Amino acid sequence: MQKRAISLAADMAALQGLWFQAMQDAWSLGTAGRIPSATRVAASSDRAMRLAAGMIGAGGVIHAKATANAKRLGGPKR
After folding, report:
1. Using CA atoms, how far apart are residues 38 and 19, in angstroms rounded to an integer?
2. Shortest CA distance to 41 belongs to which of 6, 14, 32?
3. pTM (2 decimals)?
4. In a 3-state reduction of DSSP, which class is residue 37?
5. Using alpha carbons only, how large is the chain's radius of gyration in Å?
6. Sign (positive/negative) of CA torsion 16, 66, 49, 10?
């Protein structure tokens, strides 16, 4: 159990880092006063996509664990 908690905490910290970078990108691109380069836009887009994919993946893991726990504990079927 402790290994899972550490792994989850590490994954959440990584997602938080990506979120922070994505917000910095949005702020700097929006306040630069000039059109950003294609390289900068691509890097920002890549971070945003990795963040979205990580959040979707985390939701799937949480759902799978919750479903497994409900089955194991014999909760009501839906």
Report:
1. 21
2. 32
3. 0.60
4. coil
5. 18
6. positive
Question: Looking up tokens 């985390």, which residue turns up?
Answer: 58
CB atoms closer than 10 angstroms to residue 40: 14
* 38 burial type by CB count under 10 A (0-12 exposed, 13-18 middle, 19+ buried): exposed
Place of tokens 């006063």: 33
Helix (H, G, I), strand (E, B) or coil at 38: helix
pLDDT along the chain (78 residues), means of 10: 76 87 88 88 89 80 79 74
Task: Scan for tokens 């839906």, then name that residue.
Answer: 78
Q: Which two tokens stand for residue 42?
A: 């691509």
Taken as a whole, the chain contains a residue count of: 78
Residue type, 56: I
